[in-house]
Amino acid sequence: MSLQDKITTELKAAMRAKDTTRLATLRLINAAIKDREIAARGDQGVSELTEADLVTVLTRMVKQRRDSARAYEEAARLDLAEKEMAEIGVIESFLPRQLTEAEMTAAIDAVIAETGASSVRDIGAVMAALKSQYGGQMDFGKAGAAVKARLA
Question: Same domain, yes or no, for 116 and 83?
Fold first, then answer.
């Protein structure tokens, strides 16, 4: 079952269960996917998004919600922060399992050895290889800092 089909199935299940939080989040996911499809159609003439494109959309949604939750917490709006965190939980249920710190370190070491990176100038090549192999499975902000520390 494709990711898009899984989202549609979960949407229908949430409607039947009258789970308003999950339903609203799934509708937001569908809207973001539709927006991305429209943009891809206009830019590249692509009719359907790949699984990697869908994972990118979902990852971006999680990042946006984390930023919003942080802002709400700083503004002492805990009710809104909790809502954002609940949405993150729903969105993350469709993403691949995230790598642990140890797995991320091992992946970085493997990619550095694979690409033959030896200096800070090679960070771009290492990050590109990590994104192609582990897209959606790691936080690339943390990975970038780890790669930089490793190559420095």
Answer: no
Domain of residue 110 covers 101-151
Do 131 and 83 lie in one domain? The reply is: no
CA distance 8 to 10: 5
Q: Are residues 12 and 87 in the same domain?
A: yes
pLDDT tens per residue across span 22-56: 999 999 999 999 999 888 887 666 667 888 889 88
On average, the pLDDT of the chain sits at: 89
The CATH number for 38's domain is 1.10.1510.10
pLDDT reported for residue 46:
66
Under a CB-based contact definition with an 8 Å cutoff, are residues 109 and 126 in contact? no
CA distance 90 to 92: 6
**In this structure, are 48 and 88 located in the same domain?**
yes
Kind and range of the H or E run holding 38: helix 20-44
pLDDT, residue 91, reads 94
pTM surpassing 0.85? no
Are the C-beta atoms of residues 69 and 84 closer than 8 Å to each other? yes
Report in angstroms the alpha-carbon separations of 29 from 13, 60, 65, 94, 148.
15, 11, 12, 10, 33
